[in-house]
Amino acid sequence: MTDDGWSPRSLAEARERIDAIDGDILALLHDRARVVGHVGRLKRESGGAGAASAFRPAREMAMLRSLHARTRDPLAFATVLAVWREIVSGFTAAQVPLAVETVAGTASLARDTFGAQAVLTVAPSPGDCLTAMGRHPGTVALLPADGMDWDAVADSGGRVVAAAPFAGGRIDAWCIARADPEPSGDDVTLALTADGTLRHIPGFDADTGGDTALGIYPAPLQTA
């Protein structure tokens, strides 16, 4: 609801308008829940991509970019991002619980990335995270970017599917999963050279030139 010419005559009138808007937001959330329920049913019936996976980083990044493009001042995008994250987290949990394995140093980032409804486990080491990911289908391991053991990732059968945080100018952690990547519209292929150098190659499933492909991740949103 937009009405740039509206001006309340009293504090009570302004608060009444806020209450009405809150009611509209709640009604829209109920509508979204109903649609999400149909999405879950269609996934199960088709058995296709995402039928068993609760984490869809390409879809989430596409939605996030659209929201960022439509956010107007004075509404800070950080607020939109925080609210959107919890909406996605809650509706995802209603379909398939999302299990996330991480370590103490990235536990806060994991909660910010996956939301309050994700089932978060803080493991003793990155290796333990990868082991849990391998044992339990659909589990995502969020591991610190510094000191990543790429041989262990390869041995686990996992691949990079996203970078964290989703928005910002740096990559602090990698999301590893045993899942096929999906295009988000702005993607990066991650590869490892023989001397251990990471290559970030623009494009979905880009040519690595013989270097070891580690996965594909949606490019994080640049908000600055």
What's the end-to-end separation, in Å? 28 Å
Classify the secondary structure makeup into a structural class: alpha/beta
Based on CA atoms alone, the radius of gyration comes out at 20 Å
> What is the strand content?
15-25%
Q: Please estimate the helix content.
A: 40-55%
Unreliable runs: none
What is the global morphology? elongated
What does this structure look like?
With 224 residues, the protein is an alpha/beta fold. It has one domain (49-218). The protein is built from six helices and eight strands. The strands form two sheets. Strands 2-1-3-5-4 form a five-stranded mixed beta sheet, sandwiched between helices. Strands 7-6-8 form a three-stranded antiparallel beta sheet. Helix 1 (11-46) packs across helix 3 and helix 2 packs antiparallel against helix 3 (77-95). The chain is elongated. The protein starts with 10 loop residues before the first helix and ends in a 6-residue tail after the last strand.
